[in-house]
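User: Structure please.
Assistant: Input sequence and predicted structure:
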Amino acid sequence: MSRETVTILKFLSRATRARSGGVTLKVSPRAARPLALSFFCFLCLIFAATPSRAATFTVNSNTNVSDANPGNGSCQSSNGTGRVCTLRGAIEEVNALAGTHTINFNIAGGTLAAATITVTGTTLPPITRAGVTINGTTQPNNNTGTLGTGGTVGVGAIALPTFNRPDVMIVDGGGFAVGLDVQAANVTLRGLCIYGFGTAANDDGSGNIRVGNVSGVIITQNLIGTPATSFTDPGAGARSIGDNIRVSGGDSGTITNNLIGYSNGKGIQIGNDADNWTITGNEVRGNGINNSNLDGIDIENGSGGATVSANYFWENEACGVDMYASAGGNEVSNNTIRRNGRGTNANLESMGVRVFGTGSTIELNIIESNYGAGVTVTSGASGNQITRNSIFDNGTITNKTGGGPSTQIGIDLIVAGESENVGTSPFVTPNGAATNGGNLLFDFPVITGAVLATGGATLTLNGTCPAGADMEFFIAAPDPRGYGEGQTYLLTLREGSASDLNATAGSFTFRLSTPAGVSVGTTLTATATSTTTLNTSEFSLNAVAVLAPDIELRKCVNWNSACVEGTVNNIPPGTDLTYTLTFRNRVAAGGMSATGLTLIDIIPPNTEFKVGSMTYNRGTTTLGVPPTMQATNVSLPNPDPTQPPLPPPDADPAWSYTPTGTYDPAVKFVRWKFTTGAVASGTSGTVAFTVRIK
C-alpha cells in the first residue's frame, strides 16, 4: 500500500468514527478502501457542481500583452513585475473562465494618452464568453467635456443625449481589420472610444466593432469612429476604413446612445438575416466618406424587424437610413434625417430613407434637406406605410462639391426600370399608372378645393382619391414640381367615412374646423394610404387654401330719378318701377372667385311683371353673357309662414314658363343664370327687371 493510500485511509478512519448511544464504531482500513473511492468521487461531484461566479477584471495597463494563464481567475500578464492587466489579457481571461464577467478600467497616469490602448503586434482576441461587459465608464475621469449635437429629434421632439468624453480610447496601430470582435451572446460594450480599424469598407471581416451570429449584444455610450477629444473627421491617415459597427447575422441586439461617425464604411450595418435590432438615441454622422453608396445605417440582405427610433442621421454620403434587400417589417420613427446623400463618387444613393421589402413603417420623422428624395420606395417593395412625418426641402441642396440640386421630391415611388439609387426624372408618378412599382404605385389624392368660410373658421376640402383610403393632409413646403412636400401634418380623413359629405366612391367632401396654421394662402398637400395593404402614395399636387366667395346683394328701386334702397310709399297705380340688384364679391384679395352664379328675385306683391324687362350688366366681372333669363308662375309655401314664399327648385320644369302680354300678373319669380365666367374678388355687376303697380 502506498503512503498516499495510507494517509487517505487514516483520514477516512478518523472521519468515519461515529458516536451513537455511547458506542464508538470503527472502520478498518481494508473496509475503508471502497469508502475512500466513494468519498473521492463525492468530492469530485462537489467541485463539478460548484456554480461559476461572476468575476471583475480591472485593466491597469495600456499595453497589448497577453494574460499569463488564461482561465485561472487572475488577469496578469507574463512580462514585467507587479500585477499588470491589459485589455488583451482581460479578454483572454474571461474567454477561458466560465461565468458572466466584467472588464473595468483603472489605468494610472491621469491623462487620456495614458488610457489610450493602441493595438499593435496582434489584433485583440474575439470575445467568445457570453455575458461579458466591457465598461469604459469605470476609468477615472481624464477627458473632461461633452460631445454630441444634443437638442431634439423627430416630430415628437425627443431629447437627443450628449455624452461625457470617453476616458478609454482603443486605437488601431497595426492595420487590423477588426477592433472589438463580439462572438458571444449578451455582451455589453459601454463607454469606450474606438476608431481606426478596418481594411475594407462594407465588408463582414472589417470594422471598429464586429458582431457575429449571436444575440442580445448591447453597444451603448460609445464614441465610434473618431478620437475621444472631438466628434469630427480624424482625417485620411487615421480614419476608420471599415464600418463603424458591423453586425453579421446576430439577432435582438441594442445600439443605443452612441456617437457613430466619419468612417469610410457605413455607420451601422445590420446584415445577413440579422433580425429585431433596436437602434435608438444615436447620432450617426458623416459616414461613407468617399463611398457614396455606404449609409448611416443599412438594414440589409434579409435582415428585418429593426426598430430605429430617436436617432439623428445626418451628413452621411449615401442614405441616412437604407434597407437594401431587407426582409422588411422595420419601424423607423421619430428620427431626424437630414443632409444625407451628398456624396460625389460612383453608385450614389441620394435619398434620406430608402425602403426595400414589405411591411415597414416610416412615421413621425423629420426628413429634410437630403440631396435626393426624402423617402424612396423601391420598385419591388410594398405595404410600406409613410405616416405623419415632416418631409421638406429634399432635392433642394447641393452635394459636397457644390453640384445640384437634384430637384427630387418628398416621396418617390419607383417604377420598375427606374433608378433605385437616385430616382428617375421627373420623379412624380402620375395617377393611374401600372402597379409595377413601389407600394404598387398607389394613387395620391387630387385636391380640387380647399375653401375657407365663416371668416376662416371652417375649411371645406374637396377632391378625389382611392376609395376607402386614409388621407393625411399637410401644410406643404412647396417643391419646384408642385407635389408636396408635406412639412406639417394636420389631420387624417378617410374617404367614404361618415364625415365624408360626398357619397360618390372615390370622391370626398369634408367640412371641418380649420386646423391650426391654415389660413388664406396656405399651401396644402396630401398622401393616401390603403387601409388594407398599407401602401402609401406620393404627395399630391398642392392646393392653396382660399376664402369662399362672399357675394353681397343690394337691391334698389328707381324712383324720382334715384335708386332708393328700402320702402317707397304712395306710388300711384299704373306706375312702372324698375328694380336693380347689384352683386359684388366682397371676399378679400386672393379669395375664391364665384362661378356658376344664379340670381333669383321675387315679384313684389300688388305688382305685375313687365314682359321683356329683364336686363343684365356684367360690370367688372368676367361673367359670360348673355345669361339665361327665365321666369316662373309657381311659388312654394315657406315653412316659416312669416317669410315670403319660395321659388321652385333649380331643375323644376316650372322655370320653362313663358310670360305673355305686356304685363303678366302670373309671374312669381325671375332668374338670371351665368354659366360661364366668374365674379372675382372686388368685382361687381347688375341685373334688373320692371313691374307695374296694380
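The helical segments are 3-15, 29-49, 87-96.
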